[in-house]
Structures are given as structure tokens and as C-alpha cells.
């Protein structure tokens, strides 16, 4: 059929989330040592325009809300070059998580400060 399937969108959204978390100071390769990670607890996806196999895509992420233990973020997939249309968005909630006790924990001060600096409130 030539169009993106849901698994293609989700793979890009997931990769973009790790880039956003790295920008905030969380590096996945350190998770084993620190025993801290993130648990996605909510995803809301909107498909606005069709993406086709071979389309070049840019993922643009922002922080929408900073909670005590969680971040709400939004990632838009833009088709470029060309019209630059926003073709899909994902609004997600990720909870900072202690991997040993399997429970939510407060955001570290550094991550909180960097996230608050990126707040867009969209």
C-alpha cells in the first residue's frame, strides 16, 4: 500500500522520546547502573495526514507539563522537504521509575529544571 503503518509511526515516536529524555539529562545506557528509568503510562496519537514510504520526516518534541514524578510531552512528525505539514502527533505521559522497587519516583532536580526550561504548555 506504500503508506506508513502504525508500527512505523510508533518506532519514530519512541526514538524521539529517547532523544528528548537525553536532552533532559537521562541517558538510556546508564539505566542498568542507576536502576532508574521511565514508564510510558499514556499515549494519544493523532494521524492528520498520510505519510508514505520514502517520505523524509522530522520529529519535533516539546514538554507540555512537568509533574512531581512525570513528564507530559508532545512529538509532531513533520514531512520535509516540501510542505512541512504536521502529519501525526503523539502526546504522552512518562513516569520516572525506580527499576528496583518498580514504583514511580520524583524527578531529579536537574531533569526537572531542564524540562521546565522547555515547557511549551501546548
Radius of gyration: 15 Å
| Proportion of beta-strand residues | 35-45%
Element pattern in H and E? HHEEEEEH
Remind me, CATH topology?
Thiol Ester Dehydrase, Chain A
Query: How many strands appear in the DSSP assignment?
Result: 5
Distance between the termini: 33 Å
Q: Which secondary-structure class do the elements indicate?
A: alpha+beta
The dominant shape is elongated
Helix content: 25-40%
Any idea what the CATH architecture is? Roll
Structure characterization notes:
The protein has helices spanning 6-24, 31-34, 109-117; strands spanning 36-47, 57-66, 70-79, 86-98, 103-104. Helix content is 26%, strand content 39%. The chain is an alpha+beta fold. The protein has three helices and five strands; from the N terminus they run ααβββββα. It has a single domain (6-117), classed as Hotdog Thioesterase (Thiol Ester Dehydrase, Chain A), CATH 3.10.129.10. The mean pLDDT is 91. Strands 1, 2, 3, 4 and 5 form a five-stranded antiparallel beta sheet that branches.
What's the arrangement of secondary structure elements?
Elements: H1 6-24, H2 31-34, E1 36-47, E2 57-66, E3 70-79, E4 86-98, E5 103-104, H3 109-117
Antiparallel strand pairs: 1-4, 2-3, 3-4, 4-5
Amino acid at each position: 500500500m506504500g503508506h506508513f503503518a502504525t508500527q512505523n509511526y510508533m518506532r519514530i515516536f519512541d526514538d524521539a522520546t529517547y532523544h528528548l529524555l537525553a536532552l533532559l539529562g537521562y541517558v538510556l545506557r546508564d539505566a542498568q547502573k542507576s536502576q532508574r528509568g521511565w514508564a510510558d503510562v499514556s499515549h494519544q496519537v493523532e494521524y492528520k495526514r498520510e505519510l508514505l514510504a520514502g517520505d523524509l520526516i522530522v520529529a519535533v518534541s516539546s514538554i507540555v507539563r512537568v509533574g512531581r514524578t512525570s513528564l507530559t510531552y508532545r512529538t509532531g512528525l513533520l514531512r520535509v522537504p516540501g510542505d512541512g505539514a504536521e502529519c501525526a502527533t503523539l502526546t504522552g505521559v512518562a513516569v520516572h521509575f525506580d527499576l528496583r522497587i518498580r514504583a514511580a519516583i520524583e524527578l531529579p532536580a536537574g531533569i526537572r529544571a531542564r524540562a521546565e526550561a522547555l515547557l511549551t504548555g501546548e
